[in-house]
Write a structure and sequence with these properties.
Elements (H helix, E strand, L loop, with lengths): L3 H14 L10 H7 L3 H24 L9 H23 L1 H7 L10 H9 L6 H31 L1 E4 L2 E5 L11 H21 L3
Antiparallel strand pairs: 1-2
């Protein structure tokens, strides 16, 4: 019971204080590419949660058995295994989402967030904490993708849809710029600024 608060702190650290996009400024390439809609952002986020949590667990379990000289290649093999599972599962059960995310699913293998957590955390901490770290960082990444994707989709199309259903619709003239790369930079920049403002007012 005494360890439970530390697990909660580790999880919330990944979601808030060390949010990959808004705080660590990592994973911006897939963020710019896939956040044209809420659905795409959520799909990519769930894929990253699975890969990050699974690879953190395996790498933490094997951390004493992996020679230092082949550390990074070994991490990539573990991560690539989980990415392959995600890729094949999504292709089989969610083909429209698989087509929408495209090359960015296989590229999770070399995503700096996943590799960074393997090197900086999973290889140096026990399995339970590594799983919590993966869940926290992955959830923080997913929430950021969903937020960015929702804003871009709403401003760019006038509505937010999910699985063929309209969740929200507003009567505005759609700004097509928002679903293009410049719109992604604009929204991410605004949200980063807001995140920094909130952290500064709370004293970090």
């Amino acid at each position: 019971m005494s360890d439970r608060p530390s697990y909660i702190r580790e999880f919330m650290r990944g979601v808030l204080r060390d949010n990959p996009i808004f705080c660590l400024i990592l994973g911006l390439c897939p963020t710019l590419a896939v956040t044209t809609s809420l659905e795409n952002g959520l799909g990519m986020g769930i894929a990253v949660i699975f890969v990050l949590t699974g690879s953190n667990l395996i790498i933490s379990i094997l951390r004493w058995q992996i020679p230092a000289i082949v550390r990074i290649p070994s991490f990539i093999v573990v991560i690539a295994t989980f990415v392959t599972v995600v890729d094949m599962t999504m292709a089989a059960f969610l083909p429209p989402l698989h087509r929408a995310l495209g090359i960015y699913i296989p590229l999770i293998t070399v995503n700096c967030i996943v590799l960074g957590r393997a090197e900086a955390y999973a290889s140096r901490n026990p399995p339970a904490l590594s799983v919590v770290d993966g869940l926290g960082i992955g959830m923080g990444f997913t929430l950021a993708l969903v937020l960015i994707g929702s804003i871009r989709e709403l401003l760019g199309t006038g509505m937010i849809s999910f699985m063929g259903s309209t969740l929200l619709q507003i009567n505005i003239e759609p700004a097509m710029l928002m679903i293009l790369p410049p719109g992604a930079f604009f929204i991410i920049g605004l949200l980063m600024g807001l995140s920094n403002l909130i952290r500064n007012r709370k004293g970090g």
